[in-house]
Amino acid sequence: xxxxxxxxxxxxxxxxxxxEIYDVNKTDLTFGSRLIRSLGDPECERGITWLIKHHLELxxxxxxxxxxxxVLNALPHTTHWEAxxxxxxxxPYLTIPLDQVKPVQGHLQNAILDDAKFVRAWxxxxxxxxxxxxxxxxETAGDILKKARETEAAASAKxxxxxxxxxxxxx
Length: 171
Hints:
It comes from Candidatus Phaeomarinibacter ectocarpi. By secondary structure, the chain is an all-alpha fold.
């Protein structure tokens, strides 16, 4: 059974089961690249994005800027909120290429309008990540975060906004 088929067969709930898929595949040197190639399929996007996030958390790095860009560009194409959340949670582990700043900014600005509060929270954190890696974006990120501080209702998002503003040195 292919990786995509294995992930598509996952029940979408069991962390133990998705972690077992990870454990079976983690030593394969092509695992990260195979995950990247599997992005974009709604049947397995929650599992694939979780596996990518987990792989990054454990130290894997994309092998090329094309792979990084594929993860970054997955955000507007994911259909399930958990998949969007996983992509956003990948941002701190990725080096955002200069040519991706504008697209990522647009994706983040769309994500801060998401119905899912955790997606919004991590989108605010993503603004901080983008501004930290690309200082030319700090003023724009600061303006967005300051406005959000006044309008965002979800406590989880407010915490991310507060931390992002503090990390950027903005009151």
